[in-house]
Amino acid sequence: MIRFIVFFAAMMAAPELAVAQQLPTDLLNIPVDGSVAAWIIRTFGLLTVLSVAPGILIMVTSFPRFVIAFSILRTGMGLSSTPSNMILLSLALFMTFYVMSPTFDQAWQSGVQPLLSNQINEQEAVQRIAEPFRTFMAANTRDKDLALFVDLARERGQTVQTGAQIDYRVLIPAFMISEIRRGFEIGFLIVLPFLVIDLIVATITMAMGMMMLPPTSISLPFKILFFVLIDGWNLLVGSLVRSFS
């Protein structure tokens, strides 16, 4: 966790991301003999990157698949607020750290450490840090989704680089819709057994003439018991982790 925080801070100090040539401490100092307009632009760029950086990290990691699967699980069981949003988001976040740890380690060793040792400049460090994420996204993106955004870019007259060095403007949205699709696929498999339990309970209650009794109030304990007996959290988390290339 500490390594990830330091790695994140190093990315924020890079000029490609912060639109600056100095360290953040220098960016916050008003220049004496320089241009005030340039200082304002650099400071605005730094604050903008700091505000959108968490969203950028979520877009290029395994977080969407985890949070979608966990949310559909809660809805399928009929639990509106249990587990709470904080628990689900925390579990998804730490599972993301677990899945992405090889990518983070590679980015740290190839980009952040040489930058902190003054072996490479900031521009090269940004390229080295971003390369492991490109590899991860390319390995978990459907070819159909990737081809869609490549075709859309070419229809707009844009030149898109494909192959091993595919552009991020094409790779990131393709990766996101691939992750959302896989999250819904896994969610369908999660909800299916709970739907069967609801149908069985509804059929039994109607056959017994209990029209005014909501079937969900009876099926809820059975769904919870079923999920506990099959060790559902172990199966779900294990399947999600194994689903990544």
Automatic annotation (TrEMBL):
| Membrane topology type | Multi-pass membrane protein
A single GO cellular-component term on record: bacterial-type flagellum basal body
The cross-references to Pfam families, in alphabetical order and at most eight, read: FliP
Q: Where is the signal peptide?
A: none
**Intracellular or extracellular location(s):** Cell membrane; Bacterial flagellum basal body
List the PROSITE patterns.
FLIP_1, FLIP_2
Q: Which UniProt keywords apply?
A: Bacterial flagellum, Bacterial flagellum biogenesis, Bacterial flagellum protein export, Cell membrane, Cell projection, Cilium, Flagellum, Membrane, Protein transport, Transmembrane, Transmembrane helix, Transport
- Lipid biosynthesis as UniProt keyword: no
Indicate the transmembrane segments per the record: 36-61, 82-100, 186-208, 220-241
GO process terms (BP): bacterial-type flagellum organization; protein secretion
Q: What does this protein do?
A: Plays a role in the flagellum-specific transport system.
Would you identify the family this protein belongs to, as annotated?
Belongs to the FliP/MopC/SpaP family.
Q: What is the protein named?
A: Flagellar biosynthetic protein FliP
User: Which organism does this sequence originate in?
Assistant: Rhizobium mongolense
- What lineage is on file? Bacteria, Pseudomonadati, Pseudomonadota, Alphaproteobacteria, Hyphomicrobiales
